[in-house]
Amino acid sequence: KKYAAYMSNDERFANIKGYFDPSSNLYNNIRTSETSFVIDHSGYYFTDESAREFYAYDENTFSCRVSLTQVLTKKGKPDFRDKIDMTIYLRKVGDSFLIYDRYDH
């Protein structure tokens, strides 16, 4: 959810970078993403949240499919619904599992 908030210009990269492997291409792609071209809004919330399809590839690597809808709101305007459905890939870095890649469905 913090990643989605970052991509809609509602969160700072400093608040999400700890979830991503800094040695991955994904980390740099997210860090340099232009997040200011999102539909004008004053608030947001999430619905239809799920995490499923967990697959372990070895003791240090797994994936998980994450789905949710981010709803951007602005008084006097219809809500904008952004359906997010992706598989994220995580690997062990130190004592944590960090996201190093993703695939959009």
Task: Name some characteristics of this structure.
105 residues, mainly beta, four-stranded antiparallel beta sheet, 2 helices, 12% helix, 50% strand, globular
In short:
The protein has 105 residues and is mostly beta strands.
Description:
The chain has 105 residues and is mainly beta. The chain contains 2 helices and 4 strands; from the N terminus they run ααββββ. A hairpin with a 6-residue loop joins strand 2 (61-73) and strand 3 (80-93). It is globular, with a radius of gyration of 15 Å. The two termini are 17 Å apart. The mean pLDDT is 96.
Layout of secondary structure:
Layout: H1 2-7, H2 25-31, E1 43-58, E2 61-73, E3 80-93, E4 96-104
Antiparallel strand pairs: 1-2, 2-3, 3-4
State the separation between the terminal residues, measured CA to CA.
Answer: 17 Å
Q: Output the radius of gyration.
A: 15 Å
- Helices, by number, come to 2
Helix content: 10-25%
Q: What letter string, H or E per element, gives the SSE order? A: HHEEEE
Instruction: Show unreliable segments.
Output: none
Adjacency order of strands in the biggest sheet: 1-2-3-4
User: What's the pLDDT, averaged over the residues?
Assistant: 96
The total count of strands amounts to 4
Summarize the biggest pleated sheet: 4 strands, antiparallel
Shape: globular
Structural class: mainly beta
Strand content: over 45%
